[in-house]
Automatic annotation (TrEMBL):
SUPFAM superfamilies: Flavoproteins. Residues 5-155 form the NADPH-dependent FMN reductase-like domain. Pfam families: FMN_red. Residues 183-204 are annotated as: Disordered. Coiled coil: none annotated. This is FMN reductase. InterPro entries: CE1759_FMN_reduct, Flavoprotein-like_sf, FMN_Rdtase-like_dom, NAD(P)H-dep_FMN_reductase. GO terms for molecular function: oxidoreductase activity. The keyword Kinase does not apply. Keywords: Flavoprotein, FMN, Oxidoreductase. Its EC number is 1.5.1.-. It comes from Sinomonas terricola.
Length: 216
């Protein structure tokens, strides 16, 4: 089996960033679980804060600077994605959405995606179901059943036998990572298979119009 490419996207803005911390935990856990299943995985992480100016310029000029182009190519060619966004105004961040607006809307079809988010309280956890899942459903990705939300109290939990105080968060990270690694094992590289022909109901308005004007 070829090396499986896991691309991690963190939309955290701070330094340090809780979103990056969660992204790293998910990436490390997935690679470890994949190794346990006999899969060689390479994890590559991109912080969108480093690409913010390039993302904005891309919308104005239509040109992706080299580092942004590299990130876009990596995401579109990934065998699996891990995406983490902070919660802003009851949704994912604008930076997160802007980056995925630059991804070809057919490129993630069938790609396994593990969702993660961070916010100021557990009340924000529904962002994953009401904002992130719909976005990646639209992109026709395969969304893992377990998503991971981390609030400030998750980083400081204290449970029996867990002096580091991350028991519940750790268990959610491990469960999500296991699901993603198992998906990679079942795929066996299937996510890199050629895309099936687009059905009429899946085409954009522009594509349908082009078909009509060309007589198809």
């Amino acid at each position: 089996m070829d090396v499986q490419k896991i691309v991690v996207i963190s939309a955290g803005l701070g330094t340090p960033s809780s979103s990056r911390l969660l992204a790293d935990q998910l990436g490390d856990a997935t690679a470890r679980r994949a190794a346990g299943l006999g899969i060689e995985a390479r994890v590559t992480t991109y912080e969108l804060r480093d690409l913010a100016v390039d993302i904005a310029n891309n919308f104005v000029t239509g040109f992706a600077a080299p580092k942004l182009a590299e990130a876009i190519t990596a995401v579109e060619g990934a065998d699996a994605l891990i995406v983490v966004s902070p919660v802003f105004s009851a949704s994912y961040s604008g930076l997160f959405k802007s980056f995925f607006d630059l991804i070809d809307n057919k490129a993630l079809e069938g790609t396994p995606v593990l969702l993660g988010a961070t916010g100021g309280s557990q009340r924000h956890s529904m962002v994953i179901d009401f904002a992130m899942r719909p976005l990646f459903s639209y992109l026709r990705a395969r969304i893992m059943p377990t998503a991971v939300f981390a609030a400030p109290m998750d980083w400081g939990q204290s449970v029996d036998g867990d002096p580091a105080g991350t028991g519940d968060l750790t268990s959610r990270v491990e469960r999500a990572a296991t699901e993603l690694a198992t998906e990679l094992a079942q795929d066996g590289g299937a996510s890199a298979a050629p895309k099936v022909a687009t059905r009429p109901e899946e085409k954009s308005f522009e594509e349908l119009l082009a078909d009509l004007t060309s007589g198809r």
